[in-house]
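Exercise 7. Given the encoded structure of a 504-residue chain, write a plausible sequence.
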């Protein structure tokens, strides 16, 4: 097999990076060639993404590739889900995209359900109810800025905007579109009535392509400006979809936890699960590579730790390795947190929010940094167990292995805690699963690879996977019950869907 080079742009809520992937004789090598910070910006009390800044960072990388004579077959872009921008008649972006943490979204979702049925929405889309889903964002636009909707000609999600700026092509891709709560997981097509009953014309919705679709070469004006004239491929452009595509699982007795700012916990299926039980448990059916379904729950991941670190950095700069060491030395089971409590969505000071939560739930405030970090990691592991138990009930599957992928897999303490809390073997890695998936879908588009199974074989051959096994599962099971009682979390009994059918 010849050596092939591909460029992956992986844009996350905390940072973006450019990864050069080289595929040779069934093995993938990844090299980070550029990294840059990303953060939401506050404008008139609204949180936005500076999409033009992200595009400029991508242009820098392209110029460097051209200057250095680096021969790259193609590039692909993946990002977080749900957020979008609106183009006007001239193809200009009407405004910077809202950030999914914009404070108005929870209220907009609540008001949406005052007018439309939640049961019907889930029956049509199979998507978990989260206040920042694209559908609720659009409802928020109608309330806060209806002029944007009036003049909108096309809606594009975050990776679509980058691809549009690169190529001039207006299209989305299935995995990112599936996060919107506006497509059918059965037909994999838009549900126009969801838009039209809000008074928004469905014509603004773009064409949906499969992952691995080529959008053609970079636009001429960018080539004249110094970018290489390479091909742009729509990869599995939702970052979780790219990560799951690169998950090195075998058989069907495994689940994945794609852990970073968010923790996506789920399984890969061939058909959606839309039942009274999955509705009650708030599970989602998003699309994956090869027309698969990512049946999962989206829970808060390392966001509380990331935000605490920012607070601590005001007086003391600590890296994640130091925080893990401090947590290792701290006493166990001192504080239980529900990572998804509204208190932690976007507080001004995460450390203070954790203290307030502790008092509100009748617990002692954490005494030091190590105790706080340990509580976050223990609680995330316990939340993973709860979702795992729900997954088993909803799919009928028994699990033996958890594949912990993404940046969270570098955290050895989180990996061990997850093994302890769930009682399962945890295989941690690859930490760059998203970039690997991005590159390997480009290889699939180029005809070098044949499908999902070959992609996973390449991943298994290319990356170190670390194994963690539970040492004290009984002790952790006892404290899991304390976690459930303290946080008020439990398996949610089916309710709400007014049909006797199990599968809808």
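Solution.
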């Amino acid at each position: 097999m010849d050596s092939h080079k591909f460029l992956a742009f992986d844009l996350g809520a905390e940072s973006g990076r450019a990864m050069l992937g080289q595929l040779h004789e069934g093995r993938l090598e990844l090299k980070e060639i550029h990294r840059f910070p990303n953060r939401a910006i506050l404008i008139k009390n609204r949180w936005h993404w500076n999409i033009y800044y992200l595009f400029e960072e991508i242009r820098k990388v392209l110029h460097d590739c051209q200057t250095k004579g680096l021969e790259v077959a193609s590039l692909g872009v993946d990002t977080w889900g749900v957020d979008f921008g609106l183009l006007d008649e001239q193809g200009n972006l009407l405004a910077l995209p809202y950030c999914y943490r914009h404070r108005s979204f929870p209220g907009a979702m609540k008001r949406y359900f005052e007018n439309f049925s939640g049961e019907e929405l889930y029956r049509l889309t199979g998507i978990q109810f989260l206040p920042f889903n694209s559908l609720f964002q659009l409802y928020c636009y109608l309330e806060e800025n209806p002029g944007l909707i009036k003049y909108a000609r096309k809606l594009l999600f975050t990776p679509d905007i980058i691809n549009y700026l690169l190529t001039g092509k207006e299209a989305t891709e299935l995995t990112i579109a599936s996060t919107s709560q506006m497509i059918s997981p059965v037909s994999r097509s838009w549900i126009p009535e969801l838009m039209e009953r809000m008074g928004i014309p469905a014509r603004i919705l773009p064409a949906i392509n499969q992952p691995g679709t080529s959008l053609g070469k970079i636009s001429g004006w960018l080539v004249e400006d110094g970018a290489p004239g390479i091909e742009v491929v729509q990869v599995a452009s939702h970052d979780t979809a790219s990560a799951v595509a690169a998950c090195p699982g075998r058989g069907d007795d495994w689940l994945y936890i794609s852990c970073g700012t968010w923790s996506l916990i789920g399984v890969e299926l061939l058909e959606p699960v839309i039942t009274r039980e999955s509705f009650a448990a708030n599970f989602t059916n998003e699309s994956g590579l090869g027309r698969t379904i990512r049946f999962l729950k989206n829970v808060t991941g390392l966001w509380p730790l990331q935000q605490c670190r920012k607070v601590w950095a005001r007086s003391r700069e600590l890296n994640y390795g130091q925080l893990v060491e401090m947590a290792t030395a701290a006493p166990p089971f001192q504080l239980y947190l529900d990572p998804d409590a509204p208190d932690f969505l976007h507080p001004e000071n995460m450390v203070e929010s954790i203290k307030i939560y502790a008092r509100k739930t009748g617990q002692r405030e954490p005494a030091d940094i190590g105790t706080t970090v340990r509580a976050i990691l223990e609680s995330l592991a316990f939340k993973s167990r709860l979702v795992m138990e729900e997954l088993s009930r909803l799919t009928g599957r028994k699990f033996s292995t958890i594949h912990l992928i993404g940046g969270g897999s570098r955290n050895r303490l989180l990996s061990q805690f997850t093994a302890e809390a769930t009682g399962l073997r945890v295989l941690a890695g690859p930490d760059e699963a998203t970039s690997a998936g991005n590159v390997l879908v480009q290889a699939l588009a180029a005809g070098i690879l044949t499908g999902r199974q070959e992609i996973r074989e390449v991943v298994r051959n290319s990356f170190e996977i670390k194994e963690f096994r539970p040492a004290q599962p009984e002790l952790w099971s006892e404290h899991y019950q304390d976690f459930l009682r303290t946080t008020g979390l439990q398996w949610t009994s089916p309710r709400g869907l007014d049909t006797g059918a199990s599968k809808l």
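Remark. The longest helix spans residues 369-395. Students should compare their own answers with the one above.
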